[in-house]
Amino acid sequence: MRIDKWLWAARFFKTRSLANQAIEGGHVRLNGQAVKPARELRVGDSLDIVAGGTQWTVIVRGLNEQRRPAVEAQQLYEETPDSVARRAAEREERRLAPAPGSDLRGRPTKKARRQLRGFNEGF
């Protein structure tokens, strides 16, 4: 089975074209080596996947040509224990120290605009 099709079926990427872009961009490695989208994938292969700032290390446990519900898609792979621990640490880090500006929503209020204008004019 093609690796781009498997990544799409396993729900790591929303579309096959996004999976292709990630593979060509070097965000997916098969057994530690860069691959092309048409590379054949076999049960037991190890994949390192970087998608949306999250990094997974998974072992292929099944192949499926069709995109199925998430519960079935999770049965196609097994995440390694160190990958689970790394993702949990990243999640905890994001919770404790959110990115600056992540709490801002929509347009600034009139008061906030005045403060920004005053700050910018001061320099």
Short description:
This protein has 123 residues and is an alpha+beta fold. The chain has five helices and five strands; from the N terminus they run ααββββαβαα. The protein is 39% helix and 17% strand.
Model description:
- It holds the Pfam family S4.
- Belongs to the HSP15 family.
- Residues 107-116 have a biased composition (Basic residues).
- It comes from Aromatoleum toluolicum.
- InterPro entries: HSP15 (IPR025708), S4_RNA-bd (IPR002942), S4_RNA-bd_sf (IPR036986).
- The structure is a single chain.
- This protein has 123 residues and is an alpha+beta fold.
- It is 39% helix and 17% strand.
- The protein contains five helices and five strands, in the order H-H-E-E-E-E-H-E-H-H.
- Strands 2-1-3-4-5 form a five-stranded antiparallel beta sheet.
- Strand 1 (28-30) and strand 2 (33-34) form a beta hairpin.
- Helix 1 crosses helix 2 (16-24).
- The longest helix is centred in the last third of the chain and has 16 residues, at 81-96.
- The N and C termini lie far apart (59 Å).
What share of the residues lie within helices? 25-40%
The count of helical stretches stands at 5
Instruction: Give a quick account of the main beta sheet: strands, pairing sense, barrel closure.
Output: 5 strands, antiparallel
Class per helix and strand makeup? alpha+beta
Extract low-pLDDT stretches. none
Total strands: 5
